[in-house]
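Residues and backbone
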Amino acid sequence: MQFRLEQALEVLDRTPAVLRAMLSGLSDGWLHGTRGPDTFSPFDVVGHLITGEKTDWLTRTRLILESGAARPFPKYDRYAQFEASRGRSLVDLLDEFQRLRTENLGTLRALRLAPSDLARKGLHPALGEVTLEHLLATWAAHDLNHIAQIARTMAWQYEGAVGPWREYLGALKGDVMKMDDEGVRRRRAASGSDAG
């Protein structure tokens, strides 16, 4: 499938409602369960998506349009949610995510990007040159990746309970995204369980 901004917007528009439908009203076992030590809970993922709305997608879009590859993107803080979400409810996070996403997509639409804009280049600190099209396609794929991550993490909560049916459940198989040492340290510090 070739990238088309209108199609990416179809996904980006729906993500807040999808997350609200998946997560609203669930007990803490679903919201804060993980796939093992040093992995992310659905609650963590929603906080991570908020960070992206604040500091990633539109920030980098503007940087590409204003400076091209002359200025590298600032480093993205993959673990900001641990401090930013501390003490907050899931409902509050979902409301903030929906508000930010609505604002950001309104801003994106107002840019009235032309095909020539999508070919403009930016400089990622680790990946090198990328285009605005790459960035916007990644935004939509990133949403879908994290929706899948939430579903897999929730399914994992019954990993032991499904018995022999585990063999047929793809959500219980495959790689698990683990945090690096910085993420582990920051989660512990934000939760007050830092022994250091």
In short: The radius of gyration is 18 Å.
